[in-house]
Design brief:
CATH superfamily: Gcn5-related N-acetyltransferase (GNAT)
Radius of gyration: 16 Å
Strand content: 15-25%
CATH class: Alpha Beta
Distance between the termini: 40 Å
Length: about 210
């Protein structure tokens, strides 16, 4: 018997939603490789550190955030940013360094290395970038991520823009492929592997990217 699909409303995040959306993302990413570097200790400690990072990303960096709402509860969130503002440049990374140092010194190096590799692989052509997308752990696998991705594709197609994302979770590659994303490269970053995925603005339009296979 299949798992029931959750019915959600996908809409733009409002200022009052910032903290709740950041908490949802922190729980969604608590066990991802890049997140484990923030804390080897308790899950709640890791989520607290991640919430601070995501609150800064959603509230102060360029882009807009879509949330999936089930009733009054936010159950998923997705930040999208248009190129060339989509990657945290080395200069922006340095501006965020005081926060990262306040979280954990070792995590700061890991986080900056990941962001640098992502920045170096980012396609140098117009696109919308997903960074990040997350769903509440207890509701994952019920179509919420698919509904967020579907809305992203609608917006990208309306604007005739390509889409791009990174993932360090092999299981997610098949999901993104269902929405037209293709893996264009990968890189090993401090013990984990990240895949870079591209969705063309029009069918048959291959990306002119600078991804480096690893």
């Amino acid at each position: 018997m299949g798992i029931a699909m959750e019915s959600v409303v996908v809409e733009l995040m409002q200022p009052a939603d910032l903290m709740e959306a950041a908490v949802v993302l922190s729980r969604a990413f608590a066990y991802r490789p890049v997140s484990r570097a923030l804390s080897e200790k308790r899950r709640l400690d890791r989520e607290r550190r991640l919430t601070a990072v995501h609150r800064l990303m959603l509230g102060r960096l360029p882009g807009q955030t879509l949330v999936a709402r089930k009733g009054q509860r936010i159950v998923g969130a997705m930040r999208i940013v248009q190129w060339p503002q989509c990657q945290i440049s080395p200069r922006q990374g340095l501006l965020m360094l005081p926060l990262m140092l306040g979280i954990k010194r070792g995590a700061s190096l890991h986080w900056l290395m990941v962001r640098y590799v992502w920045w170096r692989h980012d396609p140098r052509q117009s696109h919308w970038h997903i960074d990040p997308l997350g769903v509440e752990p207890d509701l994952q696998g019920r179509g919420i991520g698919s509904q967020l991705l579907g809305r992203f594709c609608e917006l990208a197609d309306e604007a005739s823009l390509a889409g791009y994302l990174e993932t360090d979770t092999p299981e997610n590659i098949r999901l993104y492929q269902r929405f037209g994303f293709l893996a264009t490269g990968k890189a090993s970053i401090m013990g984990s592997t990240d895949w870079f995925m591209w969705r063309s603005a029009t069918e048959g339009n291959r990306p002119a990217h600078n991804c480096i296979s690893g």
